[in-house]
Design goal:
Belongs to the pyruvate:ferredoxin/flavodoxin oxidoreductase family. It holds the Pfam family TPP_enzyme_C. The chain has an 8-stranded mixed β-sheet, sandwiched between helices. The longest helix has about 35 residues. Helix content is about 35%, strand content about 15%.
Length: about 800
């Protein structure tokens, strides 16, 4: 068998599109021995995210409900890419947020098929409510947690702070030190989840950016049928599901206390059984592939006197340190678990029975618990099994993606060596790698605060029509508004041609006086901040997509309440603030619910959306504002699909249905129109209640257009009636620019041909798809004209 395996490897090309051999994969000809494998395998050169996707592709799950978040986003992207070439049949469902994606996965798993997902950090936190539901109802699935720091403050790099929130959710958790382990654990995870003794959802955890994006040589099954033979066909016999009409069931019924505690006990029993089942599966997998993952990865622990405990990517680095110390005559060893739920308590206690001291590195802090979760569980293991002599040192390290080097490993061992010599630990718990800062290097203010006198110019005249109640606005020539200072300083890191800031600054020209802005996570926030630097001249707040509107509504109501109590009299306020929430990059998908809630409460604030037609801040995935047929990184173009399959969300109409005072659309291509609407938005937010506005913002990078084409692209979008300019003021719809009346209307194809992301729509084979898109654009434009003609609508 080995000869045939080696000959197969030698024939693998750099790019392998062979469906039988696993699809779209990078591969390298390695002549080294495959090992004791009993199944034909191949070498590839890929990242952890790619290997998670490849394992899912080989298993061919039924459903993946997903939402993009760095650094796990690529998993769905790779699956979409391979689906466009027909390499799997997974139904990929883009959700409106991670909470929703978890619900999709839960619902799909009740229906008896195989379910897959991937997420990170805040995405996992948003799912958290759903995690015990999945495990408590004993419904198997597999989810990859690509570990990342959790906010706040915002950091997108890898540590285990999100992972530690998963420890109490009832999911067995497998750990991955490198891309090879990501592939292997994903295959074993499904078998573990579906084992009759377990029947629990399983999490596969890898380190964000350390493992998820770094390419390594990986060995995989050559043939999908061998994967399926190992994991077993599905659905497993005897698994109840909601699609069996002969055996109707109730999933998640209400339980009183005697039954609930029994449910928890049974789940606990299943979790502890998962440890033994994993060991059995790991041995079977090792026998098949030559790669064995014991419960604990013990390196030179047979006679170790000092040791270090680390998880995932850092656990490989520490092995080099162990070898270096062994060369110096120091009996060093390392421990890294391959599974942390159930926690391998007895195995750890046994491995440490002769160890004098161990340093435990936690890449996440259990704040207030005198150590991270792993050190406290390791201490419990020692105490439970009668070991009162091994000294334990706790260090929190690597937060926010801080690198872990060999010299850091030497420091951890030195702590253990000193404790072993003295018999006591000088500092049981501390952070490692932090610094107090230097007082003489405190960041100084580089931007002078904006002066109220410069902001409240009085150049824009506003009065109210007593008959209709609508506002009359007179805007001076745009050159007159140049004297108003910019609220954002140049120097942000936006891509060339980005339309966000030209649109924002134009809108802000219509706002008089002081503003407080809240920025959702997204391009506008990320490229304009980066501690200790900022492009914001005024006060700004950040919060996540799903809660920005609620957060700003709290600020608004606190302002008005403190003003009512007279607590702000000493702050020199010459006028009321205007509160603006800036959202985009799909923020009105995941943030739609809170935005509607804020609208229904009618807080005095403005929600301003820059619509760049995708989740551009995470790599141009489709959002609900992406138009039908448009290419994104999760709506690819290939033989099985031609871009996004559904029409774009009409957010202004949704918000207008909440009966807020003012709704508008605008673009930088029509500056007078946008400034006039901004002035109305300012007045209504000061006097009446909530305002919503949408600005179409070009994203040349991801629209695949020229950097200098932004203004012309959005102008053509307006002239083609794809993005009509209108307002809904006190419930009355008014078109503010009609290209038909001005004889400026162009065919929708004129807009599409200016962007690389849509040129496939102009091909003859996509005629039906193009017509569907055109018909929807015309339908919405026709309805808008009818509303314009009939104010009662």
């Amino acid at each position: 068998m080995q000869t045939s395996i080696q000959s197969s490897i030698a024939l693998i090309l750099l790019r392998n599109f062979n469906k039988k051999k696993g699809g779209f994969m990078m591969a390298i000809d390695y002549s080294k021995e495959v090992g004791s494998a009993k199944v034909e395998q191949q070498y590839v050169y890929e990242s952890g995210n790619e290997m998670a996707a490849y394992a899912a592709q080989q298993i061919n799950y039924h459903v993946m409900g997903y939402f993009p978040i760095s650094p796990s986003t690529e998993v769905a992207q790779f699956l979409d890419l391979t689906k466009t070439t027909g390499q799997h049949d997974i139904k990929l469902i883009p959700s409106d947020g991670e909470h929703s994606s978890a619900g999709i996965c839960y619902g799909a798993s009740t229906a008896g098929g195989r379910v897959f997902n991937a997420t990170s950090a805040q995405g996992y936190m948003y799912m958290l409510e759903q995690m015990p539901v999945q495990s408590g109802t004993r419904l198997p699935m597999v989810m990859n947690l690509v570990c990342r720091s959790i906010s706040g403050p915002l950091n997108i790099h890898g540590d285990h702070s999100d992972l530690y929130f998963a420890l109490n959710t009832g999911w067995p958790i497998l750990m991955c030190r490198d891309p090879q382990a990501v592939y292997d654990m994903n295959i074993m995870a499904l078998k573990l989840a579906e084992d009759p003794e377990v029947r629990l959802p399983v999490m596969v955890a890898s380190d964000g950016y350390f493992t998820s994006h770094q390419k390594r040589r990986v060995q995989t099954f050559m043939h999908r049928e061998d994967v399926m033979k190992f994991v077993g066909e599905q659905p497993p016999a005897g698994f109840p599901h909601t699609l069996d009409r002969e055996h109707p069931i109730s999933i998640g019924p209400y339980m009183n206390e005697p039954d609930y505690i029994n449910n928890r006990y049974q789940m606990s029993e299943a979790m502890y059984k998962a440890g033994a089942v994993f060991e059995r599966i790991a041995k079977e997998y090792g026998d098949l592939t030559g790669r064995y993952y014991p419960t604990l990865d013990l390196y030179r622990m047979e006679d170790a006197e000092v040791a270090v405990f680390l998880m995932n990517s850092a656990s490989e680095i520490i092995k080099d340190v162990v070898d270096q110390l062994r060369a110096e005559g120091i009996k060093a060893g390392s421990i890294s678990p391959n599974i942390i739920r159930p926690f391998p308590q007895k195995q750890i206690a046994n491995a440490l029975k002769n160890v004098k001291a161990i340093t435990v590195g936690d890449r996440g802090d259990s704040t207030g618990g005198h150590g991270g979760n792993m050190v406290n569980e390791l201490k419990a293991a020692l105490f439970t099994h009668g070991n009162h002599t091994t000294q334990v040192i706790s260090r929190i390290y690597g937060l926010g993606g801080k690198e872990f080097y060999a010299e850091d490993g030497h420091h951890f061992f030195q702590l253990a060596i000193e404790a072993a010599k003295s018999g006591e630990v000088a500092v049981p718990f501390d952070f490692y790698g932090h610094h107090p800062g230097e007082g003489d290097k405190t960041p100084i203010r580089l931007l002078k605060p904006l002066k109220f006198e410069d902001l409240k110019t009085g150049l824009i005249e506003i009065d109210k029509d007593e008959l209709t109640g609508k506002l009359r606005v007179k805007v001076p020539p745009m050159r007159s508004l140049v004297k108003k200072p910019k609220r954002l300083t140049p120097g942000h890191g936006a891509c060339p041609g980005c339309g966000i800031f030209s649109g924002l600054e134009l809108f802000f020209k219509g706002i008089e006086g002081d503003i407080v802005t809240l920025f959702h996570t997204g391009c506008a926030y990320v490229v304009s901040t980066g501690y200790p630097h900022s492009s914001h001249k005024g006060t700004f707040i950040h919060n996540l997509f799903q809660n920005g509107a609620a957060t700003l509504s709290g600020v608004v109501e606190m302002f008005w309440e403190r003003k009512r109590r007279g607590e702000l009299d000493d702050f020199g306020l010459k006028d009321d603030f205007t509160f603006v929430m800036v959202t985009g990059d799909g923020g009105m998908d995941i943030g739609m619910g809170p935005a509607i809630g804020a609208a229904l409460r009618n807080h005095k604030m403005i929600i301003l959306e820059y619509d760049n037609e995708g989740y551009m801040n995470t790599g141009a995935q489709l959002s609900y504002s992406t138009p039908k047929g448009h290419r994104t990184s999760t709506s690819g173009v290939g033989k099985t699909q031609q871009g996004k399959g559904s029409h774009h969300k009409d957010t202004p109409q949704i918000m207008a249905a909440t009966n807020i005072p003012y709704v508008f659309t605008g673009t930088e291509a029509h500056p007078q129109d946008l400034v006039k609407k901004a002035a109305k938005a300012w007045w209504y937010a000061q006097n009446e209640g909530l305002v919503y506005g949408k600005i179409l913002s070009a994203c040349p990078l991801n629209w695949m257009a020229e950097d200098n084409a932004g203004t012309s692209l959005v102008a053509t979008a307006v002239d083609s009636c794809f993005f009509p300019l209108y307002e809904v003021e006190l419930g009355i719809t008014t078109i503010t620019y009609d290209p038909e009346v001005k004889s400026q209307k162009v065919e929708l194809t004129e807009w599409l041909k200016g962007m690389g992301k849509t040129r496939h729509l102009l091909k003859s084979e996509n005629e039906a798809l193009l017509k569907s898109f055109q018909d929807e654009v015309e339908r919405r434009w026709s309805r808008l004209k009818i509303k314009h003609a009939h104010p009662e609508l």
